[in-house]
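Re: beginner question about structure tokens

> Can someone show what the tokenized structure looks like for a real chain? I only ever see the sequence side.

Sure, here's an example I had lying around. Input first:
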Amino acid sequence: MRYLLILLVGFLIVFILTPYMKRIAFKINFVDLPTKRKKHTAPMPLLGGVGIFLGFFLGCLIFIRPFDKKFFSILIAAMLVLLIGLVDDWYKTKGKEFGILPRLVVQIIAATMVYRSGIVFQGYNNPFTHNYIVLPQFLQYSLSVIWIFGITTVINWCDGMDGLAGSLSAISATTLFIVALVKGQSDSAEMSILLVGVTIGFLRYNKHPAQIFMGDSGANFLGFMLGIIALDGAFKQTTIISILIPILALGVPIFDNIFVIIKRFLDGKPIYKADRTQIHYRLAAKGMNEIQVLSFICLISTCLCLLSIIILLLKI
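And the corresponding structure tokens:
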């Protein structure tokens, strides 16, 4: 019942806040302008990410304890990710592109803060000797930061269609919630189910046809929190095989964007240069409408998540 309450509270906060975010965005002209690459033909409010952020951390203040170094490190780091996303969104309101380097630096700083708080990929269980292998510190740092930064980026990159980033985030967070329950990790379970709640609350207004966008601020925040929850939960005390659990839980954005990076590299294009190579664009180019594309991608994501849960239950 506690988890259901957390889910409902997270949902209600964002459900109530989002219309206000929409009105504020129009009032201050914080809107995404149409371009040739984008499907929307009218300016769209870009403050959905602020509502998601407020909903999540208000939920944390109500339910998550204790307010320790880890909590405040996550809060400050998440605020940094949100703020640099808002700066990126502000550039969009002017029809401009924000530079890559500031985003890269801020996100790495935020991921480093999370690492220093104790959320670390420390090692893995050897499936043959059952000994716990502790990785060298530089590897712990590198893998932890790369994971958080990578998940932040791939969730952001998949935010190219109404409801897509939110739906994939909700499916992944639900999977991480189940993993945390099975492992007896109550903190990770609470944060996961709260993330599900705030995401579903936002999807009420972001489903096709969208009334508001989460923007880079919201997509980066969702990816950042998913990376942290997986690192602090699903990656703990894993074997070599069960490392696949969080990777499969976030499989669609991870594998799709690995494909995108490879394709851009082979085509001689900058890796961070936005184009239409993501799976949702490719499916739409085949003639599928937005509802069909979203349903198909969510089905793939659900199948990968179910596979991750099977691996978990098999205790490989």
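Each token stands for a local structural state, so reading them left to right follows the chain. The mean pLDDT is 90.
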